[in-house]
Amino acid sequence: MSWVYPVSEAARTTRLGVVAAFAWTGVALLAAGAAATLVVGLSESGVVPWLALGGFVLAAGNLIVSRRFESGPVPLAAGAASILACWMVAAGIRLTDLPFDGYVGFPLFVVGVAATLVGAIADRWSGAIGTLIGFVAGQAALVLAYQGAVPAGLVIDPATAAVAVIVALFISMLSVVRRRARASGPRLDDSGRRDLTAHERQSLLLNSRALVHDTVLGELAALGMTRPGPLTQSMATSIRASLVAAASAAEPSPEPGPPPVALADLLTRFRIAGLHITVTGDPSALDRLSADRRASLVLAMEQCLVNVLQHSGVTHAELSVAASEGRLITTVVDEGSGFDEGAVPADRFGLRESIRGRIADLGGAVRVLTGAGTGTSVIVSVPIDGDST
Amino acid sequence: MSARATGRQASQQRATPQRLDPLGGLTAQYFIWSVAIIAVAVAVTQVVRHANDVRSPALEAIALLCIVAAGGAVVDGAAARRFPFSAQRHAVLHVLGVLAVAFDLAGRDHGAGESAAWGAVCLAILLMTIGSYRPAAEILLMTAVSSITVAALVVGFSAGLTPAQVALFAITRAAPIAAVGAGAAAFSNTLVTRLTQWQNGAAERAEIARATVREELLAEVSNARHELLEHRAAPFLQDVLDRGVVTPADAARARGLATALRRTMLAEAGRGWLVELADTVDDPEKVADRMTPQQRMALGALISELRAIASLVPGSVAVSATTRGSEAVATMTATFTQDGARLRTAAYLAVLRTFFRRATLVIGPTTVTVTLEFVPAN
Asked: Which candidate from A177, A246, A349 shows the least CB-CB separation from B27?
């Protein structure tokens, strides 16, 4: 997979862009050439130069059709049509008995340029060789139409030759210049791959640390504060569950199905532990998240409730769930002691990684409204997968 | 039509080939120089060739200066340090080109006669590469305005000419501008369409790559955690469970293990992505971790490029980052024993300017300093 537009794609896109540019430049020039021919024909000889106008239409159609075909006999057919169109324009102007001067120079110039551009479009390989062949073929047709009336040296237009040379040079330069300009592409690609790997590793490590924090570290902290004596039943159950959880995979299972910790189980567990939780809003909105994202959110909510239980000094909390404008918003509120977030030591991972880290990993955001003695509100907002509302 | 669909459409209208593919803009930069030189050469040649018709050398000189200035504006605008090529600069190019036509017409005896044509041709030449930088709709609009203005100027300076001559000259002067504009618009439209299609597919491919990488890393991370726990913490907890009794020594050991575990986790959590790339990282607020993936890719690629230069002084790649109000500023410096970084790093500036709000690159004789400003992500 490529993080920057690949050279091969760029070459193809540039080729298509150049072909489109040639085609529409040619068509616009031919339209102007036809208008000029009509003006000159009507004003100088009083006749409509139908043959010449037909040549312009043929040349324009030839440009539009040529860019649509990638292979087959189109280059040959396009070349033949170009020669015919040039001859028709020159012969048509000659039929109106207009003198060969500046008045007819512009129509002959544009039809010659159109033949050159058809050559550039038809040559799918080098571009430059087709350009020069298109120029020569177009000029030959013009010379043929004026044979016996105007010397070939006068018919061949230096301005058209200049256009042909410039077009051929530009096409030739394109691949060389593209290679130089895109030299940084592979480095950017490598950097993109490295960043993706590093980011995913960080994300998995964060989830892993959060899991360790919520399980083994929590048990060690609880044991550290336990009075000596027999291990209580609830503590033994908790340690057993933590050891099983810590030995599991690094991240929640992406398999569809109920989350590892269902909301109802969570509420029961905290009620047993002494924290009564009032649920408001629409808890079923949690089902709008995919299984793995729902599991991460529930783990973050669990950590919020653990913090209430361990640090707030109250036995009641409110949990609300709501979906709004493509985001799922959960709020955990308590009226306890509150805390100063800036004073939380760096080695305390609960709020930073188990809550903020997990939610950031889901592309969400966490707001903590708290202060000493003012209670705490933790507002978690995560985007709902593929929500288009 | 939904608001989101309207927004997407507006965003596509604002999309330019250069913004979608900065490296493509660098490719066109090589042609800009050729185009500017050809335009000025054509102007000088035509002025000299038709010098007999010039009534006012001063006006003709001003016309020439306008084309030189237009060429300069295009070359300067295409430089990586000016990324992106702005609509204002595009408008300036047209204004200068049309002014050249006007002064040329005013400075000649025959007004709109045959000799006064180079201004329009030169403007058309300068417009040849604009399709790499600006959107199709804007190119068509500005080209139409310039073509009509040039035709009107020709009519205005047509005293003594027949109506047919006036019409012919108006057509031939306006045609190159309109034709090249149409071609440039077609080029721009093709690039934007294909680049947008590729980008849409790229998001899907990135998601697949992400899932693959995650799958590969999962076992590695699980093993790392097991090593962390299995060594001391898990056996201790299992032992307490088996005994069913908590002793004072257990409580003390639990506190000690918790402290050790926190310390290990803290050291691991403190490692930002830049630590892998730079020799010194001064980012106390972890601002660099709040760059977008594209910003990290661009800066990471530049640092990798610098590291590939043989004359880089070992240990000299330093990055510092800090917040400044709601924005963040990151500065990267690298030192070299000799000049050599210029060619290899300049190409990255356009890419950096695509992804950062502001990016400056200062290349000294032996130092490279990059300053990047951005709005930190959540």
From this structure: A177
d(CA B364, CA B346): 12
Q: In whole angstroms, give the CA distance from residue B224 to residue B226.
A: 5
Written as tens digits, the pLDDT of chain A (389 aa) is 455 677 777 888 888 899 999 999 999 999 999 999 999 888 888 888 899 999 999 999 999 988 877 655 667 788 899 999 999 999 998 888 777 776 788 899 999 999 999 998 888 777 788 899 999 999 999 999 988 888 888 888 888 998 999 899 888 887 777 766 666 677 777 777 777 787 788 788 887 888 888 888 888 888 888 888 888 887 888 888 888 877 765 444 444 434 445 677 778 878 877 888 888 888 888 888 888 888 888 888 888 988 888 888 888 988 888 888 788 888 898 888 888 877 777 767 778 788 888 888 888 888 888 877 788 889 899 988 755 44
Chain B window 75-94: which residues touch A at a Cβ cutoff of 8 Å? none
Look at residue A172 and tell me if it is in a domain. Answer: yes
* One-character DSSP codes across A191-240: HHHHHHHHHHHHHHHHHHHHHHIIIIIHHHHHHHTPPSEEPPHHHHHHHH
Residue A211 lies in domain? 195-251
What pTM was estimated for this model as a whole? 0.71
CA distance A380 to A361: 13
Q: Which domain holds residue B329?
A: 273-374
Any chain B CB within 8 A of the CB of A38? Answer: no
Closest by alpha carbon to B246, among A236, A224, A231? A231
Residues B280 and B264 in one domain: no
The tally of domains found in chain A comes to 3
**What is the nearest CA distance from B30 to chain A, expressed in angstroms?**
7
* Residue at A44 is within a domain: yes
CB proximity under 8 Å: B 287-326 to A? 293, 296-298, 300-301, 304-305
State whether A122 and A11 are in the same domain: yes
A10–B23: do the CB atoms touch at under 8 Å?
yes
In a domain, A73, yes or no: yes
For residue B369, the SS3 value is strand
Does residue A197 sit at the B interface (CB-CB below 8 Å)? yes
Question: Domain end: A149, A181, A213, which one?
Answer: A181
- Are A230 and A280 members of one domain? no
